[in-house]
Design brief:
Layout: H1 4-17, H2 25-37, H3 40-47, H4 51-65, E1 70-73, E2 76-79, H5 81-106, E3 113-119, H6 121-126, H7 128-138, E4 142-148, E5 162-165, E6 174-188, H8 190-196, E7 210-213, H9 216-223, E8 235-239, H10 242-250, E9 256-259, H11 260-263, E10 269-271, E11 278-287, H12 294-308
Parallel strand pairs: 3-4, 3-5, 7-8
Antiparallel strand pairs: 1-2, 5-11, 6-9, 6-10, 6-11
Helix pairs in contact: 1-5, 2-3, 2-4, 2-5, 3-4, 7-12
Length: 311
Amino acid sequence: MLGIAEICSLLIHICMSAPQLPFDWNHIRAFLATAEEGSLSAAARRLKLTQPTLGRQVAALEDDLGLLLFERVGRSLSLTAAGAELLQEVRAMGAAADRVALVASGQSQSIEGRVAITASDVYSAYLLPEALRALRLRAPKLTIDVVAANDIRDLMRREADIAIRHVRPDQPDLIARMVREDTAHFYAARRYLDRAGRPESMADLAAHDFVNFGDVERTLEYLVPLGVPVTADNFRIGSQSGLAAWELVRQGFGIAPMSDSVAKGQDVERVLPDMDPFVFPIWLTTHRELHTSRRIRLVFDLLANHLAIKP
């Protein structure tokens, strides 16, 4: 049976120059995804494979190596000692493969193909369409995939090509441009304010209902130091979906902070209109290699120019 050092050398040799050997990168990729996800079902979803297909690929790698890489613990899979040691090397190979894909994509000078843009669901719905309309006129053969997600997508793994974020990324291989600072205020539906009364001071907010966007504790950690007198009792309804939470505000369930760019022109009323706004940056981010791609650069620059203009 091969030792781990010999296996790792063999795997590197396979990926570089030996397709005639009995196992391939698909099996290695299946092992890596299963190890990182902890189950065949989750790994299959990540790789967009059926669970039986993924299971066969992992089993094939175990057969080729003569090693047991996983053992079942309840409904999850746990790495064996050999699997854990192998994972360290395979992760490095996976990162190298990702970088090869990035470099290849970055060298493309075509203005055709797919570009994935990730932003929060609220920004995706309310701010991106105007920019994408201009982009369609400029490059009609591009295929744009809007990844509306409130978590931070991993550009290094190509979950998206360009990200719109409110924090500057710290990975050295990413480049970012702060396109502008956005502002936000508290907003509520007029029918809610007609019923509950319009606050005249910050202290009045303590008596009002609030709609929560995600985690209440994190919201309080942000609002309370700013002097907003709210507790968890003020948040009786909310959603992890920004779009759902904003619709609850529009439907009269309570007050919530919202970007002035998003709230403008909607059927909501600014609460405490004279208070200082919340200020936060808008960062546009892409991978350094992708920034040399003509299509990525085109989309990046167009988004930057569009988002720099405050509606």
